[in-house]
From TrEMBL:
It comes from Selaginella moellendorffii. Residues 74-112 form the Importin N-terminal domain. The keyword Transport applies. PANTHER family: ARM REPEAT SUPERFAMILY PROTEIN, IMPORTIN-7, 8, 11. Keywords: Nucleus, Transport. It is found in: Nucleus. This is Importin N-terminal domain-containing protein. Residues 980-1067 are annotated as: Disordered. GO terms for biological process: protein export from nucleus; protein import into nucleus.
Length: 1067
């Protein structure tokens, strides 16, 4: 029975109702109607339908009808798109004839529909086309001819007198939708992958015939009314020539390649009229700005990825001269006044295009005579301090830092397309110019050289550095005085020359820093804008600083990080850039002579307010991780000092980022302190005594912090559960008696933590390692100081509901079960190993027996469920899952059999149990890979197989499996005896083996070095490179498949057997 259209229309209108009950009822009704035949066709019809206006009706009534119709159409199109996304790939949901009719109706509606639902239906069409046209199905062969006919008979292409039925924009959006998936077709495992036949078909039958129409639109003067159509064609052309990778084998359809010259001509014609002289912020100008941006992106793609192709069809020198002329014209207009953000992106792309051109041989010959002009008229204009920079500084300091003092500038390169702002793109271009050969520089050079000498140096030596030296140091820091504005750009320029400075002598860089950078720190009055740039510059040059300058740089940065606000201007960017530069310096293995001044400065910044605290806490984490033993002695002082600031933001943090960074710093401090534990010495007991006193300080401080975060708050703990687990683990590790446990409220803290990890959903983030470590510490703590609510939680007192909360053990069991069911391979190994520990952790509790039954049920169900999802019971990840069930079976075999009897997908309730038994026998086999290797694994295998043999031997239907279990039992028993004997003798043989290994490794390294020297003498050909690239990709693909099922994740740690090992006979 079909859904009544009127009823569905009413439901769709109700989904936009302000009444929650009515909206929920309508949503539920629509969801229940999805299974009815014709549901999708009805939604599509409503999406395209119109309610006719009544001529004699009042104007407000017609407007109401139009608004109602628009709301209804949008709701229908949205439901239609989501329905297709969820069900189009499911053939049983939408069957053969219905599928074909629906996609044909969708195409027909899409080509005619109004703009109100155009984007929604285009997305719905893309879903269908991606599956039926370009996906594995490839059953929509008539789509390209249909779209060709639609364009030919559309309103902007066909003869107007014939009243064309289709809309050109709609047809072009459909063409763009079927072209877009092919930008990702690159297969790295194939050395020379051909262009897909479907992309060739689209290019030949749809894109190339569109050029005449594209040319006609390009020739229109001013801002054409059909700029949106022009933009769609430009996007589609860009998609067709775009390649996912920058490898040599870039892809371009042959049909496009044959007419590439005329396409480039029209793209350059559009760039002829780029306007960045005045602000363009009107809505009707938006599409033209996007067209210009897309044209520059097309040029970047052609220069960066298709030089080999374009050289065959286009005069390369002439092409790059045109591209250079257009991009130079644009960047020369990089003026001081504010412009629209899209215009800034256009200027940024023009700089990127010049960097692209410069990376090519002909491009360098073309640009090198113009380096001086580019530097003076374009690059410097983009770098100088503008009024907008001052406004950004005052309005949004974080945005100012992101745009102007980026921490991710990386090395300058002509192939980057992620710089986004004119200033960053200009800095990148400057870096590329500085490392280029100078060539024949146009215009006079500051230093006279003999004819031809400048060809041997770089443009950085002969042009950039002399040019920057023209700008004098400011005499004071007055904000908009001319020398300050230009020196602001000079400091940014030095920061972009990192690669150039690396090629120079240490004395040269030292001279530049002493004469051009350090004086900035002594200006009176100071300039915060110049100080922030100087800090950033020193951070960028941290990798190449001379050794004798690192201490002065360190001192200058500390003084900048402690600078206070002056002149009614916030100095936070100064302090933030200094903190980032200090972090960069420490990451380059710089060790300060004295660590305490840095740590004092960090603590002072943390206490200065939330804004400064964020950067200071990040620096603290870096300092502790790089300082190691040097910083460890100050950990108790730091923990106490940072705690007070964090407590101000808890339990309801006004700035969650400060709390998260603070917890991260505390976790780093805990790691640092634990790693600095001194050895026990009878001669000098002072170090261990001091360390134990520090442990007490950390323990008490961490307890206060977690109590405020977790116990004092009615809400759930903060999101930084990974770092909180490190803190909790450190707390319980350094608590040894019940009185401290009660005073520090450890049991309550562990309860809250266990309840939080029970709902863990961050397996993809690989942040679970700290949780596992904390769990092991808590289990060990429970053995020392039994927790009353470890196995069973107390029932809350009235008026709370008489439903007991989760116990600590239940929370940990839920986390471990989730790890076995859905975690990535390494976490699954850890979860399985910890499950053995949990099974034996209840021995100190009176409720242990009931708790073990609960654990056995949960672990068996989780492990077997994950086993059935693997491709085979013989893959590496199957091993820990099989052993989990084995450990459960050794303790409670009847419960395991009962759980497995309902876990199977067949009518035979014994089949899952027999599947596991056979898998266990196979795992214990001597030839199994992976097999039982460790002594504890062999012990567990022997115990489990003994029970299995006893269970299966008397059943005639399982004799074969019983025999296999018996054979594996005998093998495992022999290997267990051998392992016990080997472990005793291993200590005596280690020394001799190490000596032999060292000798052999030295000989081997010499042989490898000789072979590498021979290989370096011969350059790799293009074909060899592509084949090596493909071979590496194939290896990585195989490793990814193997890693997904645990091929390299076994940690080699013993599994916990509790008292069970005593049952093993001494062989």
């Amino acid at each position: 029975m079909a859904v009544p259209r009127a009823q569905l229309e009413a439901w769709l209108i109700d989904t936009a109702s302000p009444d929650d009950a009515l909206r929920s009822s309508a949503t539920a009704a629509i969801a229940s109607a999805e299974a009815v035949t014709g549901f999708a066709e009805c939604l599509l019809a409503i999406s395209a339908g119109k309610i006719p206006c009544i001529v004699s009706a009042p104007l407000f009534l017609n407007r109401f009808r139009a608004d109602q119709n628009g709301t209804q159409a949008i709701a229908a199109a949205t439901y239609f798109k989501n329905f297709l996304r969820a069900h189009w790939a499911q053939k049983e949901k939408i069957r053969g004839a219905e599928r074909k009719n629906l996609r044909e109706q969708l195409l027909e509606v899409l080509l005619r529909v109004d703009s109100i639902v155009l984007n929604l239906l285009t997305e719905a069409f893309r879903i269908v086309a991606s599956h039926d046209f370009s996906g594995q199905e490839k059953s929509w062969q008539e789509l390209v001819p249909a779209l060709h006919n639609a364009v030919k008979n559309s309103d902007l292409v066909a003869d107007v007198s014939t009243a064309p039925p289709y809309k050109t924009l709609n047809a072009l959006l459909a063409i763009q939708a079927i072209t877009k998936p092919f930008q990702y077709f690159l297969d790295p495992t194939v050395a020379r992958e051909p262009v897909p036949p479907l992309l060739e078909l689209i290019s030949r039958d749809l894109l190339v015939p569109l050029h005449g129409f594209f040319h006609h639109l390009v020739e229109q003067k001013g801002f054409a009314p059909h700029d949106n159509v022009l933009l769609v064609i430009a996007k589609t052309f860009h998609l067709a020539v775009r390649s996912l990778s920058l490898q040599i084998g870039s892809h371009m359809p042959a049909s496009v390649l044959s007419c590439l010259k005329i396409w480039i001509g029209d793209v350059l014609a559009l760039l002829d009229i780029v306007n960045v002289d005045q602000t363009m912020d009107l809505s009707e100008q938006s599409s033209r700005l996007k067209v210009w941006k897309r044209c520059l992106q097309i040029c970047c793609t052609l220069v960066a990825r298709h030089r080999k192709h374009t050289e065959q069809y286009v005069d390369t020198t002439q092409q790059e001269r045109y591209l250079y002329a257009h991009s130079k014209t644009i960047v020369n207009k990089c003026l001081i006044q504010d412009i629209h953000v899209a215009q800034e992106r256009i200027i940024s792309l023009a700089f990127d295009l010049l960097a692209n051109i410069l990376e090519t041989g002909p491009g360098w010959r073309l640009l090198s005579p113009q380096f001086s002009s580019l530097l003076e008229k374009s690059i410097v204009s983009a770098l100088v301090l503008r009024q907008k920079d001052v406004a950004d500084w005052n309005d949004d300091e974080d945005e100012y830092l992101r745009k102007n003092l980026p921490s991710d500038l990386d090395e300058s390169c002509g192939w980057r397309d992620d710089l986004l702002t004119p200033r960053r793109s200009a800095l990148n271009l400057l870096g590329v110019i500085a490392t280029s050969k100078a060539g024949i520089l146009a215009g006079p050079t500051p230093n006279k050289r003999k004819k031809g000498k400048n060809k041997d140096g770089t443009a950085g030596e002969l042009l950039v550095m002399p040019y920057l030296s023209r700008y004098p140091l400011p005499t004071d820091g007055t904000c908009f005085e001319s020398t300050v504005r230009y020196y602001f750009g000079v400091l940014l320029a030095y920061g972009a020359l990192q690669q150039f400075f690396k090629s120079q002598s240490a004395e040269y860089l030292k001279m530049i820093l002493l004469s051009r950078v350090f004086p900035i720190y002594s200006l009176t009055p100071p300039s915060p804008f110049l100080l922030a740039n100087a800090n950033w510059l020193l951070g960028e040059l941290a990798t190449c600083l001379p050794e004798d300058l690192k201490q002065p740089v360190f001192d200058s940065l500390i003084s900048a990080m402690l600078a206070e606000n002056v002149g009614g201007v916030s100095w936070r960017p100064v302090r933030a850039s200094a903190a980032a530069a200090l972090a960069a310096l420490l990451e380059e293995d710089y060790k300060p002579v004295k660590w305490f001044p840095l740590l004092q400065a960090i603590v002072s910044s943390v206490k200065s307010g939330a804004d400064d605290a964020r950067h200071a806490l990040q620096l603290l984490t870096t300092t502790v991780e790089t300082g190691e033993e040097d910083a460890a002695v100050h950990v108790p002082y730091l923990v106490v000092s940072i705690k007070d600031e964090l407590l101000r933001h808890l339990p309801a943090p006004p700035d969650l980022q400060v709390v998260e960074l603070g917890f991260s710093s505390m976790a780093a401090l805990a790691h640092c302190w634990d790693s600095a534990e001194p050895g026990v010495s009878k001669k000098d007991e002072e170090p261990i005594k001091n360390w134990r006193e520090g442990c007490i300080t950390l323990r008490n401080t961490f307890a206060q912090l977690l109590q405020r975060a977790w116990i004092c708050s009615p809400e759930t703990p903060p999101s930084c559960l990974n770092d909180a687990s490190v803190i909790l683990g450190c707390l319980v590790k350094h608590t040894s008696d019940s009185s401290d446990m009660t005073r520090l409220k450890i049991e309550r803290l562990v309860q809250v933590w266990a309840d939080s990890i029970a709902d863990w959903n961050a397996w993809d983030e690989e942040e679970d390692l700290a949780v596992f470590d904390a769990m092991e510490e808590i289990i060990a703590f429970n053995a020392r100081c039994p927790l009353q609510q470890f196995c069973v939680a107390e029932t809350p007192l009235p008026p709370a509901p008489p439903v007991p909360p989760r116990s600590i053990l239940e929370g940990m069991a839920a986390f471990v079960s989730s790890g076995m069911e859905s975690a990535y391979a390494a976490a699954t190994w850890r979860a399985c190993r910890l499950s053995h520990t949990l099974l034996h952790s209840t021995s100190v509790s009176f409720e242990g027996e009931a708790a073990v039954k609960l654990l056995v049920c949960r672990f068996t169900e989780a492990a077997f469920g994950r086993l059935t999802e693997l491709s085979s019971f013989n893959v590496p990840l199957a091993k820990p899952l099989i052993l989990v069930i084995s450990s459960c079976y050794v303790g409670l075999p009847d419960i395991v059999e009962k759980v497995l009897s309902v876990a199977g997908k067949t009518k035979d309730v014994t089949e899952p149990f027999l599947q596991w038994a056979e898998a266990m026998a196979t795992l214990a086999d001597i030839d199994a890979d992976p097999g039982l290797v460790l002594e504890t694994e062999l012990k567990l295998g022997v115990m489990c197989l003994l029970k299995l043999v006893d269970r299966l031997a008397n059943n005639g239907t399982t004799e074969k499996i019983a025999g296999k279990c018996l054979e594996s039992l005998l093998d495992a028993a022999v290997r267990l005896k051998e392992a016990q004997q080997t472990n005793k003798a291993e200590g005596e043989e280690d020394g001799n083996e190490d000596d032999d290994t060292n000798d052999n490794s030295e000989e081997y390294s010499e042989e490898v070095s000789d072979e590498e020297d021979e290989e370096e003498e011969r350059e790799e050909t293009e074909d060899e490179f592509l084949e090596r690239y493909a071979e590496t990709a194939r290896e990585l693909e195989e490793e990814a498949i193997e890693d997904a099922e645990g091929g390299t994740e076994e940690d080699g740690q013993d599994i916990e057997l509790g008292a069970c090992h005593q049952k093993i006979i001494s062989w």
